Amino acid sequence: MSRFFSKTHDNLTPYTPGEQPRDRKYIKLNTNESPFAPSPKVVEAIQSKANLLNLYSDPTALSLKQAIANRYGVDEDMVTVSNGSDEILAFCFMAFCDGKTPMAYFDVTYGFYKVYAELFNIKSEVVALKEDFTADFDGLKKTQGNVIIANPNAQTGIFESLEDIESLVRAKADRVVIVDEAYCDFGGKSCIELVKKYDNLILVSTFSKSRNLAGGRIGYAIANGKLVCDLETVKFSFNPYNLGTLPIEAGVEAMKDVAYFEQCTKKVVEAREYTKKELISLGFEVLNSSANFLLARTDKMQGKNLYLALKEKGILVRYLGDERIKDFIRITIGSAQEMQAFIAAVKEIL
Ligand SMILES: *Cc1c(COP(=O)(O)O)cnc(C)c1O
Q1: CATH number at residue 339
Q2: Residue 211 Cα, ligand 1 centroid: separation in angstroms?
Q3: Same structural domain for residues 122 and 149?
Q4: Is 213 within a domain?
Q5: Is the pLDDT of residue 10 over 90?
Q6: pTM to 2 decimals?
Q7: For the chain, where are the alpha helices, taking DSSP H only?
Q8: Could you tell me if the CB of 84 is within 6 A of ligand 1?
Q9: Which of 12-21, 52-61, 125-134, 204-213 shows the lowest per-residue confidence on average (mean pLDDT)?
Q10: Which candidate among 116, 138, 159, 299 keeps its CA 20 to 30 Å from the CA of 83?
Q11: How far, in Å, is the centroid of ligand 1 from the Cα of 86?
């Protein structure tokens, strides 16, 4: 730390992304990316727009908002887009929390919520998941602040019902509820219909997982027009051109290519169910995931050691190490072939 670093940040612990090693070729099951390339239509569209890069991108990203609005049957003024959904999440903290309004979230969830609360000097109200890692909605309802919940939840993959989400949104009528649906397309149900009904609900999602575009950095939110307006006020005060011309183009084509999207997500779900079955037959405890990853543990080997042994064999999974899940590894679901190689490696190690 330099002697110039602001005192407001001297306790900040930044988010730790999963490894992106370049030293050798790994089967990469550690950051919940898609194993499949983007839609060929995306690649073609990017190439055809590359000669426009001398000009600024469209600060309203209108074509992308329209593509998202059309797909989900909402008005385009209910949509805002961002440089990855992490950026929208940051905008939510900036727009709706302050010294008097904290943010509530679960103890086991996406690590960025805590980081943003610290970065923006917002108080966190951390509610523990139940013993079986399902959501404690009563606990969330008792908090004072806005709420952010990943559904399916990050790290566990567990999906909570829309009835529970709706009841939370009603209980928090004077607060904002943000539902982070990064993993929704792998078996969850989206709260999109609730967004049309409630003026305090924000759906946040990303092109990084189910739309094969983690490197494209494209996220979006769908909410009541007034909430979207607030988010855009923050965006235009921070980085008006937050999406480049190529990501905008990529996003439009990815949103339109429904057949490719369905084909890829279906393969991931099939590979997840195969992997889960195999792990259970090897004696693992595997949480019930509706996402593109599995959280699993075995009595035969400590999570960290299993992670290291797999890495040795050229397979990268994620060891998160947080107290409540310190025995577990998180396995991103890759292609069928990759998951067969993973299972074979686990068998050899055990
Ligand atoms: C991956 C992930 C994000 C971030 O996605 P980007 O669009 O790549 O920034 C947000 N929330 C959750 C729960 C995630 O797992």
Answers
A1: 3.90.1150.10
A2: 12
A3: yes
A4: yes
A5: no
A6: 0.97
A7: 40-49, 62-72, 84-96, 112-119, 137-141, 162-171, 192-195, 225-238, 245-256, 258-281, 303-312, 336-349
A8: yes
A9: 12-21
A10: 159
A11: 6
